[in-house]
Design goal:
This protein is an all-beta fold and about 170 residues long. Helices cover about 0% and strands about 70% of the residues. It has no helices and eleven strands.
Length: about 170
């Protein structure tokens, strides 16, 4: 255990695609898949001490998010359809590349998602939407720290990104 050690992952932009199925006028099932994102994992907390032998970037992980949600539209306001939902999220860890931490490995894991947004009808088939999704996924990472003589390390990392999404929808 390293007292006060933590990691930081900066905000990133990603391409996300959604497909939904209207179960009835109030309930929708939705699958969202994100393009793979390269996330630099930076040393934080006590790992950023001035005397640390680490360069500051522990490694880089490529992750592709997959989110399955059930959405509920409680009420319609003319052309506006606000909705809330929840579901499961999968963080698919595609690749890991070590910098300070060599032989970096990260596990793909399941988590939960909560979601809220609003869709606005632009015509009979077209719409515009905005929403926010908060994911909660815990993953495990491991590797060795070469600057410290190959000391093995393992950590549990909580990923909790806020995904802000806007787009155009088409109903078939």
């Amino acid at each position: 255990p390293a007292s006060g050690a933590s990691v930081a992952i900066d905000d990133q932009q990603a391409l996300l695609g959604d497909v939904g199925f209207a179960i009835n006028s109030h309930w929708t099932a939705q699958l969202a898949v994100g393009a793979p994102i390269d996330l630099p994992v930076n040393a934080s907390g006590s790992l950023r001490a001035p005397a640390s032998p680490l360069a500051g970037t522990l490694g880089e992980v490529q992750v592709a998010p997959v989110v399955l949600s059930v959405l509920y539209t409680p009420r319609y306001f003319g052309r506006l359809e606000p909705y809330v939902g929840a579901g499961v999220a999968y963080a698919w860890m595609r690749e890991a590349q070590g910098i300070d931490v060599q032989s970096l490995q990260a596990t793909s894991e399941w988590g939960v998602v909560v979601q809220a947004g609003c869709e606005a009808a632009l015509g009979p088939r077209w719409s515009a939407f905005i929403d926010a999704r908060k994911l909660y996924v815990d993953t495990s990472v491991s590797g060795v720290i070469a600057p410290l003589g190959g000391v093995p390390v393992a950590a549990s990392v909580s990923l909790d990104p806020l995904i802000l999404n806007a787009g155009i929808g088409y109903r078939f």
